[in-house]
Amino acid sequence: MSSAPDVLLKELSDLGVEVGLDAVGVAGAEPFEDVRTELVRRRAAGLHAGMQFTFRNPNRSTDPGRILSGARSLVVGARRTPAPRLVDVTAGRMRIAAYARHDYYAALRSGLEVLADRLRVDGWKARVVADDNALVDRAAAVRAGIGWWGRNSNVLIPGRGSWFVLGSVVTDALLPVSAEVPDGCGACRRCLDGCPTGAILDDGVVDARRCLAWLVQAPGSIPREFREALGGRLYGCDDCQDVCPVGR
Questions:
Q1: How far out from the chain centre does Cα 95 lie?
Q2: Residue 103: is its pLDDT beyond 60?
Q3: Which pTM does this prediction carry?
Q4: How many CA atoms lie within 13 A of 161 on its CB side?
Q5: Alpha-carbon distance 106 to 240, whole Å?
């Protein structure tokens, strides 16, 4: 016999804490039409710089129903990654992005699978998606009340910042949705001013053609005009997160 939606939601939230998730929220599984439109616009403008990810097929990555037929809810989870200022990642002068120092997504997926299994016990279908380009993870997190869209395009969790990896359980269970979090950036421009290449545009959109996090993994060589800014970065760039006052 299926649990009442509010009872099931409480169980999922408690389970999330038990398995190491730092935040859990629920969103409806309707298509992210505004995000799809924006992905298409940015790709047409060249801002994606050839990267694929959710740009590859916006119609798919913004529609949870393509992941699971009959999808009605997204159970979104966040798991913390250590901030560079808390862990020395500059030994040997090489810098590696915080999220890439360990497979944090493996731990995230493991936790989300526990939530998915709980849904399956009640007869619901459930599928875990995280870092596989099938879903716009940040948009799902914002809709689920995990945090707000930061000016640096990351999801900022109130009082804790953006040092998290995100993922979802797509399910046909109809669950109570979480309230969205209001914008907390205000007039702050630290990420824009702190970006070493000026990749963050005034509207919070990142121009991947200038973003070091993308340039270090993009095919070909690093453009000469960005090599000095690259410094000792081996993989990724955390500057726009590191200067953010949220969660400090």
A1: 21
A2: yes
A3: 0.92
A4: 17
A5: 25
On whether the CB atoms of residues 200 and 154 are closer than 8 A, the answer is no
What the block records as the tokens of 209 is 């053609």
156 close to 185: Cβ distance less than 8 angstroms: yes
Return the number of other C-beta atoms located less than 10 Å from residue 235's C-beta: 14
pLDDT of residue 85: 58
Q: Which one from 131, 137, 238, 239 is the annotated catalytic residue?
A: 131
d(CA 25, CA 13): 8
- pLDDT, residue 97, reads 81
CA distances from 243 to 80, 115, 168, 193, 236 (A): 17, 34, 28, 9, 15
SS3 percent helix, strand, coil of the chain, rounded to 5, is 35, 15, 50
DSSP 47: T
Q: Which CATH number fits domain 5-85+101-171: 1.10.1740, 3.30.160, 3.30.70, 3.40.109?
A: 3.40.109
84 pLDDT higher than 70: no
* Angstrom distance (rounded) from CA 234 to CA 217: 9
Distance of CA 100 to the CA centre of its chain: 14
DSSP 1-46: -PPPHHHHHHHHHHHHHHTT-SEEEEEE----HHHHHHHHHHHHHT
Q: Does the annotation mark 131 as catalytic?
A: yes
For the chain, the structural domain boundaries read 5-85+101-171
Per the listing, tokens 């053609």 go with 209
Tell me the average pLDDT of the chain: 90
Instruction: Please give the single-letter amino acid code of residue 212.
Output: L
3-state secondary structure of 238: coil
